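Might I ask for a little of your time on a matter of protein folding? The record follows directly beneath this note:
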Amino acid sequence: MFQGVCIKIVVMLRFYLLLVVLLTNFAMADELTLTPAKNFFKDSQQVWKNKMPILIMFSIPDCGFCNKVKEEIIGPMAELKEYDDKVIIRHINANSFSDINNFYNEEISHNEFSSRYAVNFFPTVMLVDQYGVVLEKVLGVANEEYYWTDLDQLIDKATAKINKQMSAKL
């Protein structure tokens, strides 16, 4: 009799634990939302207008460091008003075959876009100009403590390069 009660309790505990895990994963999925790339041609017009780079985060599902960078750095960065005037933030899922428009208004998949930039290590963060030329690049996560600060400095460098390009005289 005592064994039967213990087995029922263990089964109930497993059920509730599974339920908690599932609900936690759904809640976390909402937190990881970054603006997916749809039209880099349109974004490039914003670069011309506002003289700020485009930050592209390349990731794949089930990548622990990708999720950490999205949750702790780029996600919060995208929500801060300070960065609205500093950088355009976009996300590319390298495993996705969803269509986007590239910088030349050609329709290609996220996967093909990643291949054209030879991205095969995740997460990869690139800062690009209005033509899609890479100005700065971060592969992986070298130092979690300083990632935000380092990325912020790269955004400033990329912005300076864009300003220099656009003020160049022929």
In short: The longest strand covers residues 54-59. The two ends are 91 Å apart (CA to CA). Residues 55 and 108 are 19 Å apart (CA to CA).
